[in-house]
Amino acid sequence: MEKISSLLKSAVYISPLTDFGFKKIFSDAELITDALNAFLPGEHIVNVQYQPPMHLGDRPQNRVVEFDLYCHTDTGKRIIIEMQRLSHDFFIDRALFYTAFPIRNQAPKGKVSVKDEAGNEKKVPWNYELDPVYFVGILAFELFDEPETKDIIIERVELYRTEAQKTCSSKLKMIFVELTKFHKTLDQLETKGDIWLYLLKHLPELTEMPKQIDDPVFEKLFERAQKSNLTPKEMETYSEDLLKMDEIYNIAVSYEHRGKMEGKMEGKMEGRMESQLEIAAKLAQRGWSIAEIGEVTNLSIEEVKKFLEQAEML
């Protein structure tokens, strides 16, 4: 099988499913707004403002979190957008953990200022009213594998009142876009959402903008994604991403094959942890950072650091 990097290096357009490609395309406010409206029907997002992606814990020992993209809308919604190429055992847990940061950060320090009916300003305790927080995951793997969900490409999750069978709150939403479930061809595309799904999955396979896609928004996407428009520095960063994709792919294949051969790894935390640590060691030898190793192995930064210290690799 030809390496992923070889296939994508010969492409006309960058892949949105690389770290560089995803951020290059969606760092444009018009493109991310259009995509969000396609994946969040009924929201009618008009404008977004990008926010710093790095979030710190309350204490030095707490984990540092860096989102792929983080933005606020003009109506106060806070939206985390994450692209995940490799299957992740605890991706839903990770999504919940990430949403805790923009929720917690809404708490003011001390009392808040409000105006009474006469227009006079006064200080009152915060009433806990929150702005909505959304997590949007663009996934290159199948997260929900139940037979009844095989045709559900975009899964939307909210807080739910089980007995009453009603939504409890719309302030927290998680949207998971499973690209592997999308199978339409160019001639079958009907909606803007279809086009976004198709391009996220197939953009590097195209040599020009298809005639079936006639929209100024997507003209901008093709222009931003064309490799010949990248600066030398951007091309260098993209090439490094492709090499890392090869390493991740090879490790994932080896990991899956060994699990099948042993017939023991599934459901056995000891075996899984041992394999994760072996992968961590291999990546450390190749010069990967602790954060990158944690991302691939599903280990926390603290676990990776402790293991590498014990293995005298730091």
Radius of gyration from CA coordinates: 22 Å
Please state how the strands of the largest beta sheet are arranged side by side: 1-4-5-8-10-9
Query: How many strands?
Result: 10
Shape: globular
Uncertain runs: 263-269
- The portion of residues forming beta strands comes to 15-25%
Structural category is alpha+beta
Number of domains: 2
SSE ordering? HHHEEEEEHEEEEEHHHHHH
Q: First CA to last CA: what distance?
A: 34 Å
Q: How helical, in percent, are the residues? A: 40-55%
Q: How would you state the average pLDDT, rounded? A: 84
Main beta sheet strand tally, sense and closure: 6 strands, mixed
What does this protein look like?
The protein has 314 residues and is of the alpha+beta class. The protein has two domains: 1-110 and 126-229, no CATH class; 230-314, no CATH class. It is built from ten helices and ten strands. A hairpin with a 5-residue loop joins strand 6 and strand 7 (121-124). Helix 8 runs antiparallel to helix 9 (290-297) and helix 9 packs across helix 10. The radius of gyration is 22 Å and the shape is globular. Residues 263-269 have low confidence and may be disordered.
